Amino acid sequence: MNLSSIGSSAGAGLSSALKSGGESEGGGFGQMLDELGAASAGADQAIADIATGADTDLHDVVLAVEMESLAFDLAVQIRNRLVDVYQEVFRMQI
Hints:
Elements: H1 3-19, H2 27-52, H3 58-91
Helix pairs in contact: 1-2, 1-3, 2-3
């Protein structure tokens, strides 16, 4: 069972994207979305492997799907926070 590859693909990528969020114009959120896509592709591949009967551990598949779900929830929460910040800035009087 390879837990390090599952945890490093989604969690580490999203945390590094969050840390580098202020370094470029919108690059941090775009990088986070790229990492979310990679986590989703990994979960899809794990599901396809188990469906086709490949030598895949069911535990690894469940972990990959759960990591993708958590990454998606994190991305939604960050998007919601960015929308709230945008709306607050938009309401500011000059």
